[in-house]
Design goal:
elongated; single chain; about 70 residues; mainly beta; about 30% strand
Amino acid sequence: PLTVLEHLRIGSKAPHFTGQIVSMDALPTASVQYRRMLVVVEGAAGVTDTLYICLKAVANTYSWITITTGG
C-alpha cells in the first residue's frame, strides 16, 4: 500500500494543498468535486473520528482513502 505522502503526490506535478478540512456526518460519493479534500467523519459516542482524503486513481475514478482514526 501507498503511504499518505505517496497518495498526496499521485497525479501532481507540484505539491498542492487546498487547505480544506471539513467535518461531515458521513462521506459523500467520491467525485472530482471532492478531489484533494480532507474530511473528518465524527464518530458518535463510543466511536472514533476518522480522517479521509478523496483521490483520483489511474482509471479516472475517485475514492475516499482513510488517513487515520482517533484511535
